């Protein structure tokens, strides 16, 4: 007695019932949640406003800092162009100092411009806090001295920001570009800005007596603070800048490691902005900060904090009351996930396997499992049967041809028509003698390996394999996809086949197995291409005298180059369609069997690199 199918007799649930029940539950949960959230709308509004404020403040600070420093980069790049092109001559140091002085006077953001020659000697111009310019010919001439270590800069580098430099005049951010002449760096141009000047620009964003802006270098070095005389918490700073955060004496910044992260600021967190609640000296503060990279060896942290006693209390109170709403949301989400997975899993499997079918990657297709849902079970059975049929058909129809016909439309693309194509015919020299010493299985394996090399080369150049004839192969270009460069693609394919066969021969010889020689013929001409046959036995193929000429050219190889490992012969009709750069030599006019006239034959260089034959302008030589 035949085995009973596994799912026979089991009750199958219609998809419509599953979907209606699932979405009914989801709608009920959603309505309940909406009613609840309407009561809590004020909570969302509060959080939204606070998120927007945090984002606005921090993004404004970031734009201010980046805009300030990016203008320095732009100025340095502009000077680099003049120095690279020798419009500012480095050999004229006095002229260079005059030009640097003019550039420094015109740019309020730059404090120092200096040039370092290959010997490490430095000269440039320094702008004092009162605006006076100090040209210096060596670093010791500048008040406080110039302490500067060049960052690693390559000739092709963009502006490179070095580590912060601290001296008696303050803290300086610096950016360096190479001065390149004749492809070699001849000096380095560095621009520096005082962090106090940057601090003035950042302090302009300070919202008043209840907020403080700051910039921290790395994790602990405070370099900018908008309240350097009187802190929001009362009292004065304990140290001048730059200084470690703990030594500076700001209890709000010192409390960052133990601050409370506000999960309600998710919108800000998604943009990389960290929002903390900090208690200092009996007051609540809200601190917002974000890292900014690219202007020193270590990232900077820019931020602002402000008094937020009432806001902090409201956030804590609303967070507690939101627990109930959050619980309801979790239940609804879990329910939706469960139902969604139950319904979507089979559909997802179908979609994934259909994607493999669409690519005709039938070997990657996994049979769909049966389902208790009636409609899904029917789809799985039909899909699995379809894949089995496609695998059987794909065994006899070239995959590349199948894809092209599907893309172009089989009815239109496969209709027989006359077209100008380029054909390639290959044949193994003396294969009969080689196969005499092989078993049938070994002969089939050898041919399969050989045809695998040929098919890979043909499909790599967008060609179509027509058929295998014994140990030979016929391929063509220009159909079903129309292309003007069909001759170029065919020649590149022949050269790729030559390289592949020679590499394969080397491996055969190393393994003690026989190598093989190959003849290839190329011809361009008019043929009939499309479905040819009758009833249920149709072939997508090419027919015409041009096909015979291609085969005769291949046969001519035994006379033209009988000892070549790979010989490639092409007709004049193909050669005239090639762009300049094809390495070939004429072998004269030949009367081919079955032809009334002579054919001009050319021998292509079988060792030429296919990549060298490129029609850059999209025009063949004949045009």
TrEMBL record:
Residues 422-554 form the Guanylate cyclase domain. The chain crosses the membrane at residues 20-39, 318-339. SUPFAM superfamilies: Nucleotide cyclase. The keyword Membrane applies. Residues 341-395 form the HAMP domain. Pfam families: Guanylate_cyc, HAMP. InterPro entries: A/G_cyclase, Adenylyl/Guanylyl_Cyclase_3/4, HAMP_dom, Nucleotide_cyclase. This is HAMP domain-containing protein. It comes from Pannonibacter tanglangensis.
